[in-house]
Amino acid sequence: THNLPPGLEYLNQLDQIIIHQQVELLEAILGTETSSKYEIKNHLGQRVYFAVEENDCFDRNLCSPIRSFTIRIADNMGREVIRVIRPLRCNSCWFPCFLQELEVQSPPGTTAGYVVQNWDPFLPKFTIQNQSKEDVLKIIGPYATCGCFEDVDFEVKALNEMTTIGKISKYWSGFVNNVFTNTANFGIQVPVDLDVRMKAVMIGACFLIDLMFFENSLDGL
């Protein structure tokens, strides 16, 4: 573990990561988009990290699902251990040359890997890359992400897209929660021996999937 980026040792023994968005009172009551805050927990519900999104009011309210952002992820001592950077890019299969790409840094300033959207006319597809931009894993979502009162799973696959090794799941949280707060609850399941840098990149992929497919939806209604 002495070779791990500082703070990522928490991920070393985890095969399940829970991401829970904290509800902002102003956003819940007025529908005004505020900076997102998240708790990142282990399978026992113990907080491992907390995360805060940084951007400006213009991005949040006018560019919401494709907005640029920086998400700073800190451990329980307040030390920033992961930084997720998303530039403003297209979110449409009609612009295959300018699709989503997200960088994950750990420690901040040092690239751990990337999440790159792949063009596909029917399915949400992404490639997980390492710090050298070498392909490592694939993420493939369902044809429809509305959920219909159930969880929505994005499968984590080997590069041949034949073997499933994990998943990123958007949990359906119930009618009241979805309609009035539109809060996000995700679970990440990956092999326990997956490189911790790739686990950090999976957390970044989870934030990207949330904004692209669930930010302005009723998440399953």
TrEMBL record:
<keyword id="KW-0106">Calcium</keyword>
<comment type="function">
    <text>May mediate accelerated ATP-independent bidirectional transbilayer migration of phospholipids upon binding calcium ions that results in a loss of phospholipid asymmetry in the plasma membrane.</text>
</comment>
<dbReference type="Pfam" id="PF03803">
    <property type="entry name" value="Scramblase"/>
</dbReference>
<protein>
    <recommendedName>
        <fullName>Phospholipid scramblase</fullName>
    </recommendedName>
</protein>
<comment type="similarity">
    <text>Belongs to the phospholipid scramblase family.</text>
</comment>
<dbReference type="InterPro" id="IPR005552">
    <property type="entry name" value="Scramblase"/>
</dbReference>
<dbReference type="GO" id="GO:0005886">
    <property type="term" value="C:plasma membrane"/>
</dbReference>
<keyword id="KW-0564">Palmitate</keyword>
<keyword id="KW-0449">Lipoprotein</keyword>
<dbReference type="GO" id="GO:0017128">
    <property type="term" value="F:phospholipid scramblase activity"/>
</dbReference>
